[in-house]
Fold these 2 entries.
Entry 1:
Amino acid sequence: MLREDSRRASSRHQPEQRVTGRNSHRDAQQGFSLLEVLVAILILSIGLLGLAGLQAASLRANQNAYFTSQSNLLAYDIVDRMRANRQAAQNGGYNIAIGDPLPTGDDQAAADLKAWHGLILNLLPQGTDEHGNAIGGGAVDVADDGVATITIEWFDARISEDEGGPVRRATLVTQI
């Protein structure tokens, strides 16, 4: 027991030791160094660039989905017009290829094709290929058995050649 008491007494009488100076533990923990701040900013900027890339890809995909939806609606629009005028459709009155001039007649089929082509031009982007040929429009082909193939084409400059090129097409095959 004497030993424990002597240890306690000796520890009580020793003066406190303080470490002072530039390299003390307390001074080192007061703030961040400039290097740590720069590394944190670098990591944050890389993360933000990644988010910006994801946002750009998302916008491109959403715009492409929008144009595809519009082309589907336009394809069903001309199908409805042909079903309302079934005899003219089965006789080839609605047949037109992409790039063909619009019909000039006064019949219902010519009016439907003009209105439909106007909707395509208003709702989908148009452009030109590397040879200066126009890209965009619609084609209708009604076979003798009443099967109609509707193709709608539009130009999307944001799509690279690796992704199939800037020409986009949607095709609908249906029975009239």
Entry 2:
Amino acid sequence: MLSQTDNTEITQRQETATREFCKFLHEPVPDKFVLEPCNSTAVLLHWKALLLIAASLGEEREYWFKTFQTPEETLPTIPVKVYPDAMDSHFHLDRTLREMHLSPQGSLEEIVNNVPVDEDKKINLVNAVAIYCDPRTYPTETYLQQIPQHIYVGLGFHPKYAKNSPARTEDEVQQFRRLIRNPRVVAFGEIGLDHSEPIKYWACQVELLQKFLPFLEDRHVLVIHCRGMHGDCGTEAFLLLLHFLKKYVRSHQPVHLHCFTGNKYVVERWLEVFPRTFFGFTNLVDKFDNHQIAALCSLEECRLLLESDSPYFPTKDSRVSSPSHLWAVAAAVAAHHQLTPERVRRYHWPMDNIFIVDSSNQLQWAGLVARSCFTAWLYQEINSCGLSL
């Protein structure tokens, strides 16, 4: 297995060790130790021999590692930086790759690595929800199977595409109908109303909802996009959409109100109709008025979801946002949402989440980032039989 070219030279220090080992074994000491061909049991102490022996171990490897562990006092103490676990409940994998001029087949890791983040703002992104709402870039069946399991997939139809031609829309509806049945697709959306579009398209958006909603299943999280007219918080759009959805969506359906900008009245009305509604927040929180801030503060912590909505709403020092920017969303939410200060606290609704608050009564952004891990439960467990919140 070894040759003279495999760095088998025995140094003076190694020779001294092998001589002492021979004496310990009560074996004859050769005039010169040779590893290839091996002329003494003692030469098995050579690092090259040990490497080959370790590599040849099969199932026994774990046994030897556990049985003959390195004494703790000999192990160097290396500080390990631990970043808070987080989940991005809404980002666009396809659009972010395009905006970053990366390959359409690129990964979430490439996106995260493409945007530098300060050391004190880094997170451990354990899960994310990739939303596809543009029929032109829907994933194929094959690509869906290749997406890593820690990324949940949502399929929708952005209301701004309602102005497409009827023939084109019909083809896209059939494409959607086929893909939404795939088990990897656990989120239905984003879909909804967008009244920032010209009023002549509003009726088309409602017709679009009528075409898509019959495909909604209990196992899906319904992801809602709702925008009012420019300069408006969208109360009329939220209430109109709510009135419409009551006719087509069951009250027990889990709902994710994406990039929520509504007021407290809207929050109350939605929870009355759909008690399993959760509210997603983005960097737009920085621009909230008093009514929107009051809505945010009225929400139970378990209903808060953090979204990068990447590639949109970048931080001031970036051209394109990334799921790694959740620290900015958390900081914006923490600036308004009052929580009990503790060093470490665990919440059990409905899963363990580490929630970190510093001792000076100021929320650490890491706390709210960790809170977003609730979404992992929402998207992972929602299609379990008999599940209720």
